[in-house]
Amino acid sequence: MPTLTISLPDSLRDFIDRQVQTKGYGNTSEYLRSLVRQDQEAEAKKRLELLLLEGLESGGEDIAADAQFWSDLKSEAVELIGKRKKRG
After folding, report:
1. Is the pLDDT of residue 28 over 80?
2. Which structural domain range is residue 72 located in?
3. What one-character-per-residue DSSP string does 12-59 give?
4. Residue 4 falls within a domain, yes or no?
5. Taking a C-beta distance cutoff of 8 angstroms, is the pair 74, 52 a contact?
6. Which of 2, 16, 17, 40 is buried most, with the most CB atoms less than 10 Å from its CB?
7. φ and ψ at residue 79, rounded to 5 degrees
């Protein structure tokens, strides 16, 4: 696995060390990988929302976009993306 070297002030390094100790991470790398994964997931959610909004704005019949609608639509989109990833 490639190595990434970063420079941090002591205050940030101390914070990371505390997070590793108190949050159950095995080491600093695990903690930082989890942060990057969280950021990736947030970006994927933003992209999905943009695509959903783009689809809604592209025309078609008007429908109420309530909380249940968004929940159902996101679930369906996640399922379709999962199927697409499995295909390659």
Report:
1. yes
2. 10-87
3. HHHHHHHHHHHHT-SSHHHHHHHHHHHHHHHHHHHHHHHHHHHHHHT-
4. no
5. yes
6. 16
7. -65, -45
Q: At residue 2, what are phi and psi to the nearest 5 degrees?
A: -65, 155
Mean pLDDT of 34-50: 96
Of residues 10 and 54, more confidence is placed in 10
**Residue 5 within any structural domain of the chain:** no
For the CA atoms of 59, 87, 74, 35, what is the dihedral angle to 10 degrees? -130
Number of structural domains in the chain: 1
Supply the pTM of this predicted model: 0.61
Give how far Cα 60 sits from Cα of 53, 54, 55, 66, 74, Å. Answer: 13, 12, 9, 17, 18
44-82 pLDDT per residue, tens: 999 999 998 998 788 777 778 899 999 999 999 999 998
Query: Mean of the pLDDT values across residues 19-26?
Result: 96
Tell whether 3 is covered by a domain: no
